Amino acid sequence: MSQPQLDQNTIDAMFSRGAKSGEILPVDFANRSSITPEQMQVLLSLNAQFSQSLSVNLSSWLGANIKLAMMSAERCMYPSMLDMLDLPQSYFAQLRFRSPDARALVSLDLALVEPVVHLGLGGAIDSAPTQPSNREPTQIDVAIMEILLESIANEMNRMWGPFGLQAGYEARVLPSSVQRVFPATEYVLCFTYEIQIGNTQGVMQVALATAIASMLLRGVGGRTTDRVQPPATRHMLQNRLEQIGFRTTLRLPHFKVRASEIVNLAPGAILRSSLPRNTPAIFTLPGGPTWDAAPAVSDGRIAAKLLKLQTPRNLQG
């Protein structure tokens, strides 16, 4: 049986009816809520701590100076992220979040893998390879990379823990399978980091699933970039600040003197005031409170016995 033939006029009429009735609508998958400047500020602050902590831990483990810094954070469709990667020259691994149950994909330049393996096996930084070889990663390579990825997951948990997010290393992902980690319509949150190991530089990317990204950005939106110090740190800072000296003043209240008395002032002269003998002095701290005080002597030093805190009304009077 022959197939029906549609001419161009018939096709145009079909699409015209669909557009008018609202049955056909364009879909812009990139039109999602993006990262606000406020959210970006919090993400930068959190990632600065993450980068510093991970750099210290990796440097201690590998016995070399490892530097890590975040380069960017953006939301994009998963295929767009993959388009920016050289898949054959990348090492991929999958992390799994527990609540919500979702994935994260970590990608590392292969140029970083061999120095990590070399140092992880006890090699010296001066003899670490600077160019990736074309060989497939061995079981030893994968085992050492698992240690690296578990360290990354642990530091991520410290960073995202306040938002209720916890992840763990799950498995290596082959380049041939990486396109199936997320659906093509997944809108991921992608963090890009630059890593330097000796003379070798490379890029690491962490892509979070939509469910994780949405939960994270909601939490970030309710926070500020103000850091709250741990109690032990606050106590240490308070103790140190208490040892800092400040210039203070202990003086009598204002009183009038004759101009002739000022002209005749000389060392040893006595300048009489009209103030009663029991008038308290004034103790002041620049930018701080003002007290009525009694001058005293303690251990051979001039001291002040604080009597009463002055109110703004007293000061004006």
Automatic annotation (TrEMBL):
It holds the Pfam family FliM. It comes from the Bacteria. GO terms for molecular function: cytoskeletal motor activity. This is Flagellar motor switch protein FliM. InterPro entries: CheC-like_sf, Flag_FliM. Keywords: Cell projection, Chemotaxis, Cilium, Flagellum. Gene3D superfamilies: CheC-like. GO terms for biological process: bacterial-type flagellum-dependent cell motility; chemotaxis. One of its GO terms (cellular component) is bacterial-type flagellum basal body.
